[in-house]
Design goal:
Helices cover 30% and strands 36% of the residues. The protein is an alpha+beta fold and 162 residues long. The protein has a domain of 113 residues: Aminopeptidase (3-Layer(aba) Sandwich), CATH 3.40.630.30.
Length: 162
Amino acid sequence: MLKIQPLRDEDWPTVWAMLEPVFRAGETYPCDPAITEEEARLYWAETTEASYVARDAEGRAVGAFYIRPDQPGLGDHVCNCGYVVAESARGRGLAVALCRRSQEIARERGYRAMKFNLVIATNEAAVRAWLKSGMRIIGTVPKAFRHARLGLVDAHIMYKEL
């Protein structure tokens, strides 16, 4: 049982605890690995249209996501999302559940499509999860991401009409 709710101020420390190791690793998000907590909050919760936290049956925060317009103005009918899953909850299909729920919320908010601009090709778990969620790869940008361990790697652009 997964309960997805809007992110509240008191949820931020738990979300930051999930995000910080992911950002610091420099393997999946374009954020500077030295990002401060304040900068991360601005990126994840303050400059987005909506942010959510996912809790398991015991009430533990196990994931989070945000939704924002991919482009301003005449491109704001397509949304962009970001996701994080707690390390202790990985490998159980949670990313797929979060993505599918974000698609429902995006539809409710009037978005017509969802686009991910930088899905790191070496992040095979994410690529699989987004494909299972109905996204498709519409392009690959060669060497678009400076991976902390692997150097320059490809990044996919993924898309789904809602």
